[in-house]
Amino acid sequence: MVENESPAQRYRRLAEECLEVAYTFPEGDRRTVLVQMAQVWQRLADERAGSASMPLFSRAGGQAAPMQQQQQMHPGEDKKK
Length: 81
What we know:
Blueprint: H1 7-22, H2 29-49, E1 58-59, E2 63-64
Antiparallel strand pairs: 1-2
Helix pairs in contact: 1-2
């Protein structure tokens, strides 16, 4: 933990670390889970800071890291009448 680091800064750092680790894995479930974890850390940082989202992590070449969104099922949605 970095001294004098605000919670929002810590959450952003954790998001970056998740992405760094994610891109050491080939595409698949492990990478997806780590990217999703990074998104959660970023959202928490944004909520804590009360500001607009900052890019999570820039890879070489200045590209923003790709994000994936997972659709969540709610109980009863799969039961059609």
